[in-house]
Every structure is written in structure tokens, then in C-alpha cells.
Design brief:
The complex is a heterodimer of chains A (500) and B (398). By secondary structure, chain A is of the alpha+beta class. Chain A folds into three domains: 153 residues, FAD/NAD(P)-binding domain; 145 residues, D-Amino Acid Oxidase, Chain A, domain 2; 110 residues, no CATH class. Chain A is 34% helix and 23% strand. Chain A has 14 helices and 24 strands. In chain A, strands 6, 7, 8, 15, 16, 17, 18, 19 and 20 form a nine-stranded mixed beta sheet that branches. In chain A, a hairpin with a 2-residue loop joins strand 17 and strand 18. In chain A, helix 2 crosses helix 3. Chain A is globular, with a radius of gyration of 23 Å. The mean pLDDT of chain A is 92. The mean pLDDT of chain B is 95. In chain B, strands 1, 2, 11, 12, 13, 14 and 19 form a seven-stranded mixed beta sheet that branches. Chain B has a four-stranded parallel beta sheet with strand order 8-7-9-10. Chain B folds into two domains: 252 residues, 3-Layer(bba) Sandwich (FAD/NAD(P)-binding domain), CATH 3.50.50; 98 residues. The radius of gyration of chain B is 22 Å and the shape is globular. Chain B is α/β, with parallel strands linked by helices and 398 residues long. Helix content of chain B is 28%, strand content 20%. Classes of the chains: A alpha+beta (500), B alpha/beta (398).
């Protein structure tokens, strides 16, 4: 049994941010995550660090929060934010009235917004549709959500935070009506774990109501699914938004070697069962294609969906639901933090920890906005220059990941999950989407005895089935060709049978 | 513009195209084969799958859906096509084992038993059930082969690791054809005290002389030895391609490499020539008839867009299995994906249907309704339909 002060459930940006904040204020804590970091909405988003522009017209409070956090993250997370800048482009037929509202909204909030001519915009982003009327330049950035979580966790680990990933909370322990701890199961070994604490923070995003219900509480939320597609190369160096009321397919974000484009908005019930429909993919491509025409002929390597855990609202159009966040005191030792967005994760964490400090009657104030994220040098991803230094024994040809690098991550994390290697090296993130290298990575894990032969076989099956969910909506052109090849390999050459 | 005249031009250098070319060349026709590059056969196990539905492929074929192109081939022709293949491969020192009446198994790199019909002699000794105990020899750092997967199914499997100093199937295969490396390896191998019934290797035992190497090792250690095909690049696939290519040339055929057909010259119902924009060599090839064997999507014969499926050389009408949403089922392991039926619809002479061209014949996986993975009929169908296409083509020319 482990005893601590604060138990955080959820390893998304919010949970990791809370762990960092608690660590910097010297509060012992333990974080439990059922999958890997950033496994929910944090990892399934477009990786945009909002300038606030998107909300300037519809939600000035959210817009201001976004802009302030944008400035802070650029400062404290220099190495994990790419300062791309963003454009809101107005296409022929898009409302001029919205443009006026947008500029006024940005001015009111204090977001630097500069209207530029179409010629100037095309100078900045040569792939833009030459028909655009004009563009407004804002300080949008792109951010790697997974690395962001790891960096927040690093601070916690350095100060004694206890972190469990792949642990699923099965029970909230209560005593005299108060929540006093949790029981969790190690998903890999089946081992049970009991952790006791004074306060439990439910930062589980789309799963907040499920966790709250374990303590007999409720978190009223609206779950809105959003689909995204990933291109096989970078079509723009700036974030491209559509200058109009929020709607489907209005954003393209460059990230590493690819671009992500989205999104859609569909209210759903179950965050564990997400399917991306072809019609969503078609909508995103045709809308993105209006801003960058080349998008129509670009290879899409994957489509996926994330869930925005928004606060319950009766608004009919889910694009209009507030992106604000809320802290719910269940008055039994458990708090739920819900709503919000990736850009404001630090602010959410600050407010949450302020509440915790008040309940402990402690005074120390938040330092997360001033101290740079620790470990940025080591965790600065896996840049190309580093990858090109060793071309011997490449395991993932798409992303140039070597066997040595894979072995290093396995030793370092003692992971039993191929997704952990993927997140840390970009293995399997390229055009073949792990079709070749996952077979190898699992083989190497077995060679190194971190998994048994049976596990490697079972995990390979599970991987192929999951992978296909992301690829299926994007199958035409070269991606279909590649997929057929991968299918011939596994189901033909390797004669893999249907799982029982 | 330089012009070259042939009796028949074949487009595509896979099993179907090279076989069709060889058959025509053997009969004295002047044949050219144009290709964009190496075929998907290079990625295959090298095995000739005829039909894996039943133990007896001939019975399996009878049970295929009525639209399946195998129904355009008589049993006699199927037998002839396999006999011809085995004879040709013997001539090229790449003997194949097996017979058309009975399927056999090769051991896959995941430890499953993959059904095939004719198999390279290097895989002949593969276990035909789960009983034989095997000992695997693998290579340090070899990135495309992991004995663990096989051990997960065959628990009693033993293995030993040899350090070849190189890590890819291709480089190890070329080392095996060097005398010094081979002798050093044999010294190491014969010192192992192998108890199991059979000895297995990932398919890296040479490129030119694999069957001889397997035979030599087997004699030296006194146990049956066999190869396990790996994921691409596949040595047995490449050996098959090299042998078919060599055989076609030996019979007098000409191959034009990196020759992508980008245009046609036509007159009425006849295609007169295919053209390519290359400089400094023939960029237009005339022929009396054309055989299209460019393969399916992977091979590059077909291309899918979000709305349609196209044939890439002659823009022939393609059978499209419904809207894009129905091309793939949700289950990855389903072999029923609708896309497996996409391809060219043909008449019984393998001439494309619903087109005005009289002198085009098709064979291999570009045909519609093949469902190659589901029916286990890849190279076998290519051989058989090549024979039919050649027969129709010869009748047409006469």
C-alpha cells in the first residue's frame, strides 16, 4: 500500500500538469493512468497551441486564457513548442462581417492580429489557395502533446512523485463518506495496487463521469467526437485556419514532418468506441483543400478521432459549446476537473492545485508559469539530424529509427507496450504506419525477454487490428497500395490467422 | 522517333507476364516485355499457391464463385501450366516440389503453416504438421526474422544464433555464396549439438544457388534442412523472379526496364503501339497484340482514388466493388474485403469486356474477382491465365 497526499487519476495534459504543479509546491502525490500518457483527448488532437483567435468571436474568456497560456508555454517550453505562427484565411464568399468581429474580438482580448493581403499570405505559405481574399496573422503555434506530458511528468519524478501508467482504477476507497484512496490494477501483470491519499483529483477527461461514478458522484459532460487526418508530408509551415464561424474542417496544423487537419464535431456517448467515418474524412479533405488546394492530392496516412470532454450544455451545435473548464468539489475529498483544452492545461492545473492548497490550508503559490520545463534537452524528441547519424540497422525505415534506439527505450522504460516505443521514437508513425517495424519492435522486445513469445504474438495481432481502425478511413491511392502490401505480408506470407 | 516492331508486347514483369512472354518466345514469336521495375513476385514467398480452399487445389477451384477467372482455365491447362513451370525452373536450377492434386505447407516466420501448392525445393522439408521438433538457426541482429514468434506456437523449438556480421536478409544471402564465409559457418554449425528432428533457417541461404546450399548443409549435418520465408525483401521471391526472367531471355525474349507506358497509338479497334517518353532508346514499340499483366494495386496495374478505380495503361473499364466505404470491412483479419474483387472483367479468351480493343489480352492479378488472399491463388492463377492469354493471343495473330 502506498500513502500520499494527492492522488491524480488521468495522465493527459491536465493530470500531468497537476503533478508538476504539486511537485513544484512540494506536495507529495501519485498519478495513475490507465494507458500511456496523452492517451485520450490530449494525444488525439491536432497539437495546436491556440493563439486564442479561434475563440475571439465566440468565447472571449477562453480566448484570453488561450493567449496568456500561449505566451507562457512559448516561454517555459521553448523546445517543445514550434512557433509557426498562424493565418486565418478568408475565402471568396466568407463573411466580411465575421472578419470585422474577429479583428475586434482579438483587439478586445489583446491578441496581436494583423490583416495581410493575399499576396503577402501566399508569400508566407506558397501552397495557399491563390483565390483567398486576405488573411489575418496570429501567434498560433504547434506543440507535441505527448512530449508536453512527459516533460511535466519529469518535474514530478525529479521531486519524488509516484507515477503509474497502464494502471486502471477499479475502485475508490471510501471511509465515513470520504474518499480516502483508490484500488488499481496493473494492466500488464494483473497485479492489484492500493493507494491512500487525502485528496483525489479526477482529471480523466472524457472518462470523468465514469471515474466520478465510482465514488457515487456525477460529472455532467457532453462528449464531442472530432476527426482528424494526417498527411504524409508537411504542406505548410504555418497553422492555417478558416476565417469564419467555427465549422468542420477549418484547421491545418504542421507538426514534425506531417500536417494534421480537422476537425468534425459529433456528440457521442461512449469514449471507448470511436470510429472515424469516410464521410468525415471526405469533409476534412475537401474543406482543407479549399485553403490548400494541394491537400486534395496529398497522401493521407491515417485518420483518427478524439473526444473533447466538454461541460454539459444544451446548445444544439456542438461547435458552440464553451471551451471553458470547471473544477467540481464533490465535497467528499474528490475533485473533478473537466472541460478546457490542451492550450490551457497549465492554467487548469494551477487552479486545481490552488484549490488543493486552500483545503490543506497551505500558502505556497504556483510557480509553473515561471520555471522552464525541465528535461527539454533530453526529451527534445528525435530530430532528424540525430537519426541520420546512424543509418546502420534501421528498424523503422519510414522514420529512420535504429535497433539501438529501440533497445535503449526498452531498457530505459522496461516497457511491455509497443506504443511507448512509438511515442518516444516516432517508430511506426510514417507512411506504412508500423506495418513493417512493429513486427520487428515486438521481436526485439521478445529477444530482450521483456515480453514472452506468446505476448509478442498476441500484441502483434492487437496492434494490427488497432492500426487498421486508423487506416481504414484513409484507404485510396498510395495508402491503399501500401495497405494491400502489408495485408499480403501478414495474411499471405506470414499466414496469420483470424484471432479466436 | 525510333520504332521497334514485335509480334507481341507484354506489359508487366510479374509471374504472369514473364510466363506469357516465355510461352510466346518458345513458339517462335518475337516478344518484348516492358516494365516499370521489379514485380511484387520479388516480395512473395516464392511458393506457387494454386487454390488453398481444399487439400486438393483442383477441387478448390471447382468451388470458387462463378465469376472467378480460374473458371476460364480448363483443368488440362492448369496441369500444363504447372508442368511447364516446374520444367522451366528445373532448367534454371530452381527446382520446385509438389503436385497439383495436393496442397502442402510451408512454415511461416510466425510459426503458422501456410498452404501452397508448388514450393521451392529449399522449403520441401518444412514440417507438414505441428509434431516435428525443429531447431532454428538465426542470425545476430537480423531485423526481419524473430524465432520468438515461431516458439510461441511450437514450444519445443530450439534455436541458435550465428553472427554473420551483417543484418539484412540480402547481405546474409550474398555472404552464403562466398566460400570462406560458408566454410566458417559450417565449422560453427557442425559443432552445435542439435537434438531436434529438422533444422530451419530464415530464407537467406544464397540467391543463385540456394537449393545446392540447402542440400549441402543437410548432407553435412545429416538432418532435413528447410528455409522459412521472411517478410520482404524476400530471397525466395527474388530467386523466382530471377529464374523467370532468365528463362524468358533464354527463350529469346527482350526486356525493356524502367519503361512506363504513358501513351498508345491506335487505329480503329486496334492498339498499334505503346509509347514512353524515354530518350535515347526506342520510345514506341509496335506489336500485333498486347498482353496486360501489370498486377493489381500493389503491382501498379490499378489505382484507386476516393471516387473510382482506374486501370493505368489502357484505361480499361474496371469492376469496382461498390462505394469506397465497402472496399474494406472493419475487421483487419477478414479476408472478405470487397476490394479483393476489383479488376478487369474479361471474356473467356481473357480479352477485356466492354472495350473496343480487339488485340489486348490480360492475365494475372489484374483480373477481377480473383480475391487472391482469400482463395490462396496468387502465382498459380498467374501461370494458368498466362497460358490462356497466350493461346488467345496466338489465335488472334493467326
Amino acid at each position: 500500500m502506498i500513502k500520499t497526499d494527492v492522488i491524480i487519476i488521468g495522465g493527459g495534459a491536465t493530470g500531468c500538469g497537476i503533478a508538476r504543479d504539486l511537485a513544484l509546491r512540494g506536495i507529495p502525490h501519485c498519478l495513475i493512468e490507465k494507458g500511456d500518457f496523452a492517451a485520450g483527448a490530449t494525444g488525439a488532437c491536432h497539437g495546436l497551441l491556440h493563439s486564442g483567435g479561434r475563440y475571439a468571436v465566440t468565447d472571449p474568456i477562453a480566448a484570453r486564457e488561450c493567449y496568456e497560456e500561449n505566451l507562457i508555454l512559448r516561454k517555459i517550453g521553448e523546445k517543445c513548442v514550434e512557433q509557426t505562427g498562424g493565418l486565418f484565411v478568408r475565402l471568396p464568399g466568407d463573411s466580411k462581417r465575421f472578419r470585422e468581429m474577429f479583428l475586434r474580438g482579438c483587439e478586445d482580448v489583446g491578441i496581436p492580429a494583423e490583416a495581410i493581403s493575399s499576396t503577402k499570405a501566399i508569400d508566407l505559405v506558397p501552397n495557399l489557395n491563390p483565390e483567398i481574399e486576405e488573411a489575418i496573422k496570429v501567434p498560433d503555434c504547434s506543440i507535441d502533446p505527448f512530449r508536453l506530458c512527459l516533460l511535466n511528468i519529469r518535474t514530478s519524478e525529479l521531486r519524488g512523485g509516484i507515477i503509474f501508467t497502464r494502471h486502471k482504477v477499479t475502485e475508490i476507497i471510501k471511509s465515513h463518506g470520504r474518499c480516502t484512496g483508490i484500488k488499481a490494477i496493473d494492466q500488464a501483470t494483473g497485479e492489484a495496487r492500493e493507494i491512500h491519499g487525502n485528496i483525489i483529483v479526477n482529471a480523466t477527461g472524457a472518462w470523468a463521469n465514469k471515474i466520478a461514478s465510482l465514488a457515487g458522484c456525477e460529472v455532467p459532460m457532453t462528449l464531442v467526437k472530432g476527426a482528424l487526418v494526417i498527411t504524409n508530408h508537411r504542406l505548410t509551415d504555418m497553422v492555417i485556419n478558416r476565417l469564419r464561424h467555427p465549422a468542420d474542417g477549418d484547421i491545418i496544423v504542421p507538426n514534425e514532418a506531417v500536417c494534421l487537419a480537422g476537425t468534425t464535431a459529433l456528440v457521442i456517448d461512449d469514449p471507448d468506441n470511436l470510429l472515424t467515418e469516410s464521410v468525415e474524412v471526405d469533409t476534412i479533405i475537401s474543406e482543407a483543400g479549399k485553403m490548400i488546394p494541394h491537400f486534395n492530392n496529398t497522401r493521407i496516412i491515417r485518420a483518427f478521432s478524439g473526444v473533447r470532454p466538454l461541460l454539459k450544455s444544451k446548445k444544439a451545435d456542438s461547435h458552440e459549446i464553451s471551451r471553458g473548464f470547471q473544477i467540481i468539489d464533490h465535497e467528499n475529498g474528490m475533485y473533478s476537473i473537466a472541460g478546457g483544452k490542451l492550450t490551457t492545461f497549465r492554467l487548469m492545473a494551477e487552479k486545481m492545485v490552488d484549490t488543493i492548497m486552500a483545503s490543506f490550508n497551505l500558502k505556497k503559490s504556483c510557480a509553473t508559469a515561471e520555471i522552464p520545463l525541465e528535461g527539454q534537452e533530453e526529451l527534445s524528441g528525435y530530430p532528424l539530424v540525430k537519426r541520420l547519424t546512424d543509418m546502420k540497422n534501421i528498424v523503422c525505415e519510414c522514420e529512420l529509427v535504429t535497433r539501438q534506439e529501440v533497445e535503449r527505450i526498452i531498457r530505459q522504460t522496461t516497457t511491455r507496450n509497443v506504443g511507448d516505443i512509438q511515442h518516444r521514437t516516432r517508430l511506426g508513425m510514417g507512411p506504412c504506419q508500423g506495418g513493417f517495424c512493429t513486427f520487428r519492435a515486438l521481436g526485439i522486445m521478445n529477444d530482450m525477454s521483456v515480453i514472452s513469445p506468446e505476448q509478442s504474438m498476441e500484441m502483434l495481432r492487437g496492434f494490427l487490428q488497432r492500426r487498421f481502425r486508423g487506416i481504414r478511413p484513409a484507404l485510396w491511392g498510395d495508402q491503399l497500395r501500401e495497405e494491400q502490401l502489408v495485408e499480403y505480408i501478414y495474411l499471405g506470407i506470414l499466414a496469420m490467422e483470424k484471432p479466436q | 522517333m525510333s520504332v521497334t516492331d514485335y509480334d507481341v508486347v507484354i506489359i508487366g514483369a510479374g509471374v504472369a507476364g514473364l510466363t506469357a512472354g516465355a510461352l510466346l518466345a518458345e513458339r517462335g514469336f518475337k516478344v518484348a516485355l516492358v516494365t516499370r521495375g521489379e514485380p511484387t513476385a520479388c516480395l512473395s514467398t516464392g511458393g506457387i499457391d494454386v487454390c488453398s480452399r481444399y487439400d486438393n487445389p483442383l477441387l478448390g477451384i471447382k468451388d470458387l464463385p462463378p465469376e472467378h477467372p480460374f473458371h476460364f482455365v480448363s483443368e488440362k491447362t492448369i496441369r500444363e501450366s504447372l508442368d511447364h513451370f516446374q520444367t522451366a525452373m528445373r532448367e534454371m536450377d530452381l527446382p520446385y516440389a509438389g503436385a497439383v492434386e495436393k496442397n502442402r505447407f510451408i512454415l511461416s516466420a510466425l510459426g503458422t503453416l501456410k498452404t501452397s501448392c508448388l514450393v521451392p525445393s529449399t522449403m520441401e522439408a518444412a514440417p507438414q504438421d505441428n509434431n516435428d521438433n525443429i531447431h532454428i538457426i538465426t542470425f545476430k541482429g537480423l531485423k526481419d526474422f524473430y524465432p520468438g514468434y515461431i516458439i510461441s506456437r511450437r514450444k519445443k523449438t530450439g534455436f541458435s544464433v550465428y553472427d554473420a556480421g551483417v543484418y539484412s536478409t540480402m547481405s546474409i544471402a550474398s555472404h552464403f555464396e562466398e566460400k570462406e564465409f560458408f566454410e566458417k559457418f559450417i565449422t560453427w554449425l557442425t559443432k552445435l549439438d542439435i537434438q531436434e528432428d529438422k533444422v530451419a533457417f530464415p530464407a537467406v541461404l544464397g540467391l543463385e544457388s540456394a537449393s545446392e546450399i540447402v542440400h549441402t548443409i543437410s548432407v553435412l549435418i545429416g538432418k532435413p534442412v528447410f528455409e522459412i520465408p521472411t517478410i520482404p525483401p524476400s530471397m525466395p521471391g527474388r530467386r523466382l523472379f530471377n529464374a523467370l526472367k532468365g528463362y524468358f531471355r533464354k527463350k529469346g525474349g527482350t526486356i525493356y526496364w524502367s519503361w512506363t507506358v504513358t501513351g498508345i497509338e491506335k487505329s480503329g479497334k486496334i492498339i498499334e503501339a505503346v509509347t514512353t517518353p524515354s530518350e535515347g532508346r526506342p520510345n514506341s514499340i509496335n506489336a500485333k497484340a498486347f498482353i496486360l499483366s501489370t498486377g493489381s494495386f500493389v503491382g501498379g496495374g490499378l489505382t484507386a482514388t476516393r471516387e473510382a478505380i482506374m486501370e493505368n495503361v489502357f484505361d480499361l473499364p474496371v469492376h469496382v466493388p461498390g462505394p469506397r466505404d465497402t472496399w474494406f470491412e472493419n475487421d483487419y483479419f477478414s479476408l472478405n474485403h470487397g476490394i479483393g474483387k476489383a479488376g478487369i472483367i474479361v471474356d473467356s479468351s481473357l480479352r477485356p469486356a466492354d472495350t473496343r480493343w480487339e488485340n489486348i489480352f490480360t492475365c494475372g492479378s489484374i483480373l477481377s474477382h480473383t480475391e487472391i488472399l482469400k482463395n490462396g491463388c496468387g502465382h498459380g492463377l498467374a501461370l494458368a491465365t498466362a497460358h490462356v492469354a497466350v493461346k488467345s493471343c496466338m489465335e488472334y495473330i493467326r
